[in-house]
Specification:
Belongs to the peptidase M16 family. InterPro entries: Pept_M16_N, Pept_M16_Zn_BS, Peptidase_M16, Peptidase_M16_C, Peptidase_M16_M, PqqF-like_C_4. Residues 183-359 form the Peptidase M16 C-terminal domain. Residues 27-142 form the Peptidase M16 N-terminal domain. There is one protein chain. Helices cover 41% and strands 20% of the residues. The protein has 944 residues and is an alpha+beta fold. A hairpin with a 2-residue loop joins strand 24 (791-799) and strand 25. The chain has four domains: 14-220, Cytochrome Bc1 Complex, Chain A, domain 1, CATH 3.30.830.10; 244-466, Metalloenzyme, LuxS/M16 peptidase-like (Cytochrome Bc1 Complex, Chain A, domain 1, 2-Layer Sandwich); 502-639 and 651-714, 2-Layer Sandwich (Cytochrome Bc1 Complex, Chain A, domain 1), CATH 3.30.830; 723-865 and 877-937, Metalloenzyme, LuxS/M16 peptidase-like (Cytochrome Bc1 Complex, Chain A, domain 1). Helix 9 crosses helix 15, helix 12 packs parallel to helix 16 and helix 18 (541-556) packs across helix 25 (668-678). The strands form five sheets. It has a seven-stranded mixed β-sheet. The N and C termini lie far apart (60 Å). Bound molecules: zinc ion. Zinc ion binds next to helix 1.
């Protein structure tokens, strides 16, 4: 069996597939170099298997399995054990699958695995936990209640045939679960579906496959085999249900969704016909539908995807973000979609397009690198075990072996107006929501209206070939071949002894680092560019808005190129920060060199002649889009709002409050002037990493230097990033009342304790160790016992060498003032008890476990690049931190740590951010302004 499993030639791990006597199939992965182990078990049962009377029970069952077993009866035994050993755990329920997984340090793996296995052997379903976990499910549901995406899903489900098992409310809440007989139902559900023959297990550790196979055998053979068959859902839930549904949205954005139900092509994965379709329809390069509609000012984004609905059917969906004009003319947008569909039908299915996708997929497989996260890797594989034949568990996603024009044509046949559901979502429908024809979805209570697709739309589709561009000369057609497909796969033999990035060039414009990587000898590489342009946008409000707008327009005019790069296997990230912009790119090095040159050239051209790139109608679209973004800022969840306000408050010259930004007005001329001056002064840091020689790096660097020294002056005044300096026993409070989103049921609180400013990198570790010690008791007390909310956790943050320790709670039942009070009481008892009683040997165990987790080596080139690049970005350059980890941890004694923790809380330099729900407000708000009356830390990491 072993030799049948196809793995990448670049994968050095050992794999073994075994089937236990109870028919449980297990994939065993041995990686002698890993410091982190993990396991994931997936069962092919999900919420489509919920009885109609108990919707959400599959999800509820997932929650209840964490609540103790016969062998380990204590409720938080499993979770505490994992947290104690620097691990993490989670579970999730989907339509037809439920998965459970955890990661942990190697030495604790067998202990963790045994606790984990009891979920499937002898769970208690303790009656005393039923009500509490039901509330947890209710909280989880409430978290998504104000989210447009989740609301639309429930409406989509409600459109399906009521007799179909697809017609289920997967999350569940008190309405569907809070019934006297629920425990009996849970036991029945578990007994009916939780059977070893329906489960697949993936385990990953440093032991040999043989040893690991034995461990798995000993533990998991006890999972009962009840001889159950995989539950199948073989109907078409959307038969004859084709209509247009107008949905009242929450956010300031208008969306058009087109859904086409097609047969499920999973068995034809060797030809991936669905991917062919989504590739050609969702393409964003030259001649593409997306590029056309954007330039016409009708849409800002177009995504095409496919999704499995059940064992019988899938869907192809279009997700289209409309501009104002696009919303007023959405029928025309639908017309253009069909013009593209017709064009593809007319030109026929093209082998060269399939070959291009296949070529990149095969290259990705051949040069496949280890995943950075053990958890993510095993999660994906457990899913694949249910999806592909055994030999293709790893290879299946990359197969693309059989060009299958027949299936593609078949799918194209389903993309017709008689097989389409239209969803149009807009906040503007709220005006009519009390009209008779509006209905209400059962669970999220979203208002919507359903009607027949109009004759007008059918006519437009029928005559779609007559539709023409009105504002540009663009056409919709088949896109040309991709110029970024790599051709050269040589690995440079040049010996470079450096382990860490070396500065290879520096002048007034550029500082350039380079590392030819010998740890991962593969034909890939990465680069990062950090640009400090004119700094006016850091200090001036109008300039900040212009800068936000610049980001939008600059990227949107480069999208065709970016998209092609992505199709050629390049991943990129564009980041606008407080005082700089940064780009990072990773991929086959042959492709990134070409891309680098194109990018630098575009950067120069755009700023030399912005007028050439900014068309008047597009400018207006981008202004509207920016306005919507500012408005939508306030529609974010209390959790996200809290994080955003936190950043906004701790930086002196950071982003302005969005309240101020939405007041600013901009004219085209302002924008052109802003853009012309933006890169007239420049300072940059560049980093090349991977299969890139020093000479190549120097050449690219000099090319950049040449281009910019002709166009720009060196930037000698980079703005410092100053962080708030909170005094001892000082508390800053910020309060934000949620008024923008009436559907939001939660409040959110974040309390931060600020530490001292220090250049000593060891300080970071003190905060991490504190987090390891406090997180479990914190969650146990406030989440499990007091049930304050579903999101309850602690975390540390480090900004410019200044640390914060944060307590975060999102709650639907308690006000932020009450929560703050509960946190204070918890802290007092934590200091007096848990911390006071923390013995030296216990502390040493925590240190050791933390060390094991953190000393995990880089798993792939890109992960290593990103870590080094982050050091360069913040100008800290602590590249050898993994090597120094042992020494740094050893320097932290029990006594020093206790002093640190006591001082942190005793000094009480505190920042509280309250995001307050109206229903929780029973006090007068006093702290709604940005904090200005305070001192600021110097920026120790300023680039100079
Ligand atoms: Zn859940």
């Amino acid at each position: 069996m072993d030799q049948e499993l196809i793995i990448s030639p670049n994968d050095k791990r050992q794999y073994s597939l075994i089937t236990l006597p109870n028919q449980l199939e297990c994939l065993i992965i041995s990686d002698p170099n890993t410091k982190i182990s993990g396991a994931c078990l997936e069962i092919c049962v999900g919420w489509l298997d919920d009885p109609k009377e108990y919707q959400g029970i599959a999800h509820f069952c997932e929650h209840m399995l964490f609540m103790g077993s016969e062998k380990y009866p204590t409720q938080n035994d499993y979770t505490s054990f994992i947290q104690l050993h620097s691990g993490s755990y989670n579970a999730s329920t989907w339509l037809q699958r439920t998965k459970y997984h955890f990661s942990i340090e190697n030495d604790a793996f067998v202990g963790g695995l045994d606790r984990f296995a009891q979920f499937f052997i002898c769970p208690l379903f303790d009656s005393s936990c039923i009500e509490r976990e039901m509330n947890a499910v209710e909280s989880e549901f409430n978290l998504s209640l104000a989210d447009d995406q989740s609301r639309l899903w429930e409406i989509f489900v409600q459109q399906s045939d009521p007799q179909s098992t697809f017609n289920r409310f997967g999350c569940g809440n008190l309405l569907t679960l809070n019934k006297p007989e629920i425990r009996d139902q849970l036991l029945q559900f578990y007994d009916k579906y939780y059977c070893s023959s329906l489960m697949k297990l993936v385990v990953y550790t440093d032991k040999s496959t043989q040893e690991l196979g034995q461990i798995v055998h000993d533990i998991f053979s006890l999972v009962p085999n009840k001889g159950r068959k995989r539950p199948l859902h073989l109907d078409n839930p959307f038969k004859g249900q084709f209509s247009q549904v107008d949905v009242v949205g929450i956010k300031q954005e208008d969306y058009l969704f087109l859904n086409f139900v097609i047969p499920n092509y999973e068995k034809k994965y060797l030809g991936q016909p669905e991917s062919y379709i989504t590739h050609v329809l969702g393409h964003e390069g030259q001649n593409s539908l997306a590029s056309f509609l954007k330039d016409e000012g009708l849409v800002t984004e177009l995504i095409v995807g496919s999704q499995r609905l059940n064992d019988q059917v899938s869907e192809i969906y279009f997700e289209i973000s409309l501009t104002e004009e696009g919303f007023d003319n959405y029928e025309k947008v639908i017309g253009f979609v069909f013009q593209q569909i017709d064009k593809i039908k007319e030109k026929g299915v093209k082998k060269e397009i399939f070959d291009e996708i296949a070529q990149i997929k095969h290259l990705e497989f051949k040069f496949k690198e280890n995943s950075s996260s053990v958890l993510e890797y095993i999660e994906k594989l457990s899913e694949n075990m249910h999806k592909y034949p055994k030999n293709h568990i790893i290879y299946g996603d990359y197969a693309y072996e059989q060009f299958d024009p027949e299936s593609v044509n078949e799918i194209l046949g389903y993309l017709n107006p008689n097989n389409m559901i239209i969803f149009l979502r807009s906040p503007s429908f709220a005006e009519d929501k009390d009209d008779e024809d509006f209905m209400q979805e059962t669970y999220c209570k979203t208002k919507y209206r359903k009607q027949q697709i109009s004759n007008e739309i059918f006519q437009i589709i029928k005559n779609s070939n007559n539709l023409k561009a009105e504002k540009t000369h663009k056409i919709i057609d088949i896109f040309p071949p991709n110029i970024y497909i790599p051709q050269n796969f040589d690995v440079i033999q040049e010996k470079d002894e450096n382990q860490y990035p070396i500065k290879i060039f520096e002048n007034d414009y550029i500082r350039c680092f380079h590392l030819k990587d010998n740890q991962f000898p593969i034909c890939k590489g990465s680069f990062g560019i950090q640009l400090f342009p004119n700094q006016d946008f850091v200090i001036d409000q109008n300039e900040r808005v212009l800068f936000d707008l610049w980001s939008n327009i600059f990227y949107s005019q480069f999208e065709e190129t970016l998209y092609n790069a992505e199709c050629a296997g390049l991943s990129y990230n564009l980041d606008s920060a407080y005082n700089f912009v940064a780009f990072k790119v990773h991929g086959f090095n042959d492709s990134i060199f070409k891309f680098y040159k194109d990018f630098i050239q575009y950067l120069l051209d755009f700023h030399k002649q912005p007028k050439k790139y900014v068309k008047k109608h597009i400018f207006q679209v981008q202004i509207d889009d920016l306005q919507d973004r500012y408005e939508n800022y306030f529609m974010k969840s209390p959790y996200d709002l809290n994080a955003s306000y936190w950043k906004c408050l701790i930086y002196k010259s950071g982003k302005f409050m969005k309240e101020q930004l939405r007041e600013v007005e901009i004219k085209m001329n302002d924008f052109i002037q802003f853009t012309e001056k933006l890169f007239k002064t420049i300072r940059m840091q560049i980093y090349f990493h991977g299969n890139i020689s020093k000479d190549t790096a120097l050449n690219l660097c000099q090319l950049t230097n040449q281009i910019f020294s002709e166009f720009s002056e060196p930037n000698k005044q980079i703005q410092p990033l100053q962080i708030i300096k909170i005094q001892k026993n000082q508390t800053f409070i910020f309060e934000k009342l949620i008024t923008e989103n009436p559907e939001e049921p939660n409040s959110g609180l974040r309390i931060s304790y600020q530490g001292d400013q220090s250049l000593d990198p060891t300080l970071n570790l003190y905060f991490d160790l504190l987090n390891s010690i406090i997180s479990d008791p914190f969650e146990n007390q406030l989440r499990t016992n007091e049930q304050l909310g579903y999101v309850v956790y602690t975390t540390k943050s480090n900004r410019r060498g200044i640390h914060f320790f944060n307590f975060i709670i999102i709650s639907e039942t308690k006000s932020t003032k009450q929560i703050a009070n509960r946190i204070d009481i918890f802290l007092q008892s934590f200091l007096a008890q848990e911390l006071a009683q923390l013995k030296e040997d216990q502390f040493e165990k925590v240190k050791l476990s933390y060390y094991k987790d953190q000393s995990q080596d880089y798993q792939n080139l890109n992960e290593k690049f990103k870590d080094f690049w982050n050091e360069i970005l913040i100008n800290q350059n602590d590249f050898d931190k993994k090597q120094k980890l042992k020494e740094r941890i050893d320097s932290i004694t029990h006594e020093k740590f206790l002093n640190f923790a006591h001082n942190l809380f005793k000094d009480s330099k505190r920042l509280e951010i309250h995001i307050i729900n109206q229903k929780h407000l029973d006090w007068e708000l006093e702290h709604q302004e940005k904090i200005t009356e305070c001192e600021w830390h110097n920026d120790l990491f300023q680039l100079n």
